[in-house]
Amino acid sequence: MRTQPAPSPLDKEAMNLDKRSSRGLKPVVLVFLLILSLGLTFWLYAQPEIMVMLAEQLWACF
Description:
This protein has helices spanning 9-46, 48-60. It contains two helices and no strands.
C-alpha cells in the first residue's frame, strides 16, 4: 500500500486560503441575491400589466 507524501506547509496554507475566501464570499453573494430579489419585486410592482399577463397565461392552462 502506498502512502501519500505529507502536504507541504505551503499546500496547507493554500488550502486554508481557499476555505477563507469561500467563507468570505458567501455573505457577499447573499447580499447580492437579496438586493436582486428586492429590485425584481419593486420592478414587478411598478409594472402590474406583467403580472396580469402572467395570470392570464396561467389561467389559460386550465
